[in-house]
Amino acid sequence: MRVLFIGDIVGRPGRRAVGALLPTLRSELSADFVIANGENAAGGMGITADVTRELLAVGIDVITTGNHVWRNKGVREIIDQEPRLLRPDNYPPGDPGAGTGLFPLPDGRRVGVLNLCGRTFMEPIDCPFQAAEREVPVLRAETPVVVVDMHAEATSEKQAMAWMLDGQVSAVVGTHTHVETADERVMPRGTGYITDVGMTGPERSVLGMNGDLIVTHFRSRMPVKFEVAEGRVALCAVALEIDDRSGKANEIHRIRRCVDESADIEARAARGGERG
User: Fold this and answer.
1) If you average pLDDT over residues 39-48, what whole number do you get?
2) Which of 6, 20, 76, 205 could bond 229 through an S-S bridge, CB–CB 3.0 to 4.6 Å?
3) Which of 15, 16, 26, 68 is an active site residue?
4) Mean per-residue pLDDT, 233-237
5) Dist CA 127 CA 65 (whole Å)
6) Residues within the annotated binding site for Fe cation?
7) Over 70: is that where the pLDDT of 264 sits?
8) Binding-site residue ranges
9) Considering the domain 2-270, what is its CATH architecture?
């Protein structure tokens, strides 16, 4: 089985890049299944019902999220009704939505997906390690192919999760920092791993946001209104080749594709500075 995992989609530029690049990319890789982190897909922070539907319509099979999942009230309109939109499983019991899912392919094979959120340098929530110990056996009982999105700030926390789950899941893919790391590998017991898959957003930016505004914020410590940057967009992803029967990863490699959005800037300005 070939699984494509797309890094954090940032705002409208990121969504447009996915729409432009994913059909060809999916065909080139013969990808059976596509996962994308969408927690920054609406205006650069959070996700909404409309954005969820837009991303699913362009060929993403499952959308994972992270610590910004509740940023927009609109997400609550869809997260209980749309099983392909996940939130971190280690949010408190009773929160809307689900943190895991079992997703069928047309040929009958199934993919289990587990969405987790780290706690180091992030808001205090339930333990992701205990959540993984609870949920992975449940998914493994239904399918050998299980992919984990570990949405976390600390590289050590992501690596620790991978070591704990090595041999139990097909892949642990790190998200959240928006910077693609060069440490992709198959671990000793067969789990594919990368510390951070990167982002799908504007290259000339600070984590997808207008760099001038972020510099002003760091220099002055005064609050600024963050805005999604414009220009050329990079889609960062990893492609996984997974053995259908064992669930072990045979291969993981990084992907980076670009699309130039600059031709759209004047048209968007004419429509009133359309952003998000």
Assistant:
1) 95
2) 205
3) 68
4) 97
5) 17
6) 8, 39-40, 67, 151, 176, 178
7) no
8) 8, 39-40, 67, 151, 176, 178
9) 4-Layer Sandwich (3.60)
